[in-house]
Amino acid sequence: xxxxxxxxxxxxxxxxxxxxxxxxxxxxxxxxxxxxxxxxxxxxxxxxxxxxxxxxxxxxxxxxxxxxxxxxxxxxxxxxxxxxxxxxxxxxxxxxxxxxxxxxxxxxxxxxxxxxxxxxxxxxxxxxxxxxxxxxxxxxxxxxxxxxxxxxxxxxxxxxxxxxxxxxxxxxxxxxxxxxxxxxxxxxxxxxxxxxxxxxxxxxxxxxxxxxxxxxxxxxxxxxxxxxxxxxxxxxxxxxxxxxxxxxxxxxxxxxxxxxxxxxxxxxxxxxxxxxxxxxxxxxxxxxxxxxxxxxxxxxxxxxxx
Amino acid sequence: xxxxxxxxxxxxxxxxxxxxxxxxxxxxxxxxxxxxxxxxxxxxxxxxxxxxxxxxxxxxxxxxxxxxxxxxxxxxxxxxxxxxxxxxxxxxxxxxxxxxxxxxxxxxxxxxxxxxxxxxxxxxxxxxxxxxxxxxxxxxxxxxxxxxxxxxxxxxxxxxxxxxxxxxxxxxxxxxxxxxxxxxxxxxxxxxxxxxxxxxxxxxxxxxxxxxxxxxxxxxxxxxxxxxxxxxxxxxxxxxxxxxxxxxxxxxxxxxxxxxxxxxxxx
Lengths: 306, 267
Fold this sequence. Notes:
The complex is a heterodimer of chains A (306) and B (267). With 306 residues, chain A is α/β, with parallel strands linked by helices. Chain A has 8 helices and 16 strands. In chain A, helix 6 packs across helix 8 (277-292). Chain B folds into 3 domains: 8-99, Elongation Factor Tu (Ef-tu), domain 3 (Beta Barrel); 112-221, 3-Layer(aba) Sandwich (Rossmann fold), CATH 3.40.50.80; 224-267, Ribbon (Dihydroorotate dehydrogenase B (pyrk subunit), domain 3). In chain B, 18% of the residues lie in helices and 34% in strands. Chain B contains 5 helices and 15 strands. In chain B, the strands form 3 sheets. In chain B, strands 10-9-8-7-11-12-15 form a 7-stranded mixed beta sheet, sandwiched between helices. Chain A binds chain B through residues 25-28, 32-33, 35-38, 40, 48, 56-57, 59-70, 72, 74, 77, 96, 220-221, 249, 269, 271-276, and chain B through 1, 3-8, 45, 50-55, 96, 224-239, 246-248, 253.
């Protein structure tokens, strides 16, 4: 679609055509939708979470549908950073939009090592630290709950990564505002929120948990009001730009996050239902700006805060 | 950048009929999907609200490229498929696809053997019909609970073939399982060149054992809970053996048809 200057932004150094980001874990490495969907419909694409070594992921079943939601327990299945550098990196230019690498580790050292490698990868426009994956036993969410740990981790990554650094937050932390402030102190440039919420489904016929991993992460419209509240709260606690996400499927949904204080929004689960969702949301945002007679969407960021 | 293909299709539902208990046959006007291959699927929205949220993967049951039409066979098994079953001719359905890798070697001369359990017959019927049209030899084994839970015999005869049938209650064909028919067939001297199977997991497990013992190449069409349908979310993973290690493959993109020796079922 045509680039509309009213939607363009520079998100702490990520030059984006529009404020829409394909959420990590929902868009592979950017190529799965390529035969059908123009990646340039997105402002940026966040890649599937990566680890140092390949990860096989969790045993199936990995998915359970819930009312207006999706519970997943993929378990960070990914081919590892070496494969990424060798086989995926050379193709990233084909996407024609900024790419955000999402990284997960089991120790501060692993996060640091991944970030140091990505610091030298020009094809990657930003790094997102995943401290909020609910589906792996070690690492992931276990890093995201304690502010002091978060500050230390973000600081370690900050020292080796010079590009825009995003920290992805979880609501599983008791006090998300405190974790957000810790990420800010540690040197984050951007915060993204929220990751999925931990949940489970029990199969009453087999009388066992439905998911192979027992628990999973809930996404989709079911979590949207919770996510909007989280963005509202964090926007009041830090001065960093925010990427809001959680059940966004329409321009109206995206606007709620922007009005709550998000500078950009990410769309995950909705891609599975509407592969052209980015294009549709952009058109909806354009219509809204037309109707309101506004010059740039950024005038709406945090506008609900009064 | 020009996109190579359409992904989203709004297709007119031309006709709908219940051809077996709880099995609804949909005939759709779908010119861009009618080039689909046997074994591929479409990803179908079941309503227009966010609940149920996800699309449902449904095998293409038949495609008529000349007429620009496809058929889907939907077994009501939950809320999504129950909603689908309530749609009426004249409505438009929201489909993505065609997705996935279908049955291989359908154009080879050696005789093929199709083994279908219940609604697993949906994609195999398409494969068999293609061989029938091409004048290539095949046999079709069909198993089900009871005659009422299978399409009538005329349904197959209209496409020029008669399946060898087994029902658990003996109301049609042999009393017993499709795999009993397969076992008997593989004991004969002239073995098929290849087996294609689709059905419930216990059946597929037995088919793997029998095909392996007989040394006949096997291809399995698998089902899975699915979210994206295109390979992005890794939700529909199945374990496969790769050089002695277990790796996960995507039913939607790497399948739904897999090599029966590689995929980890009952072994």
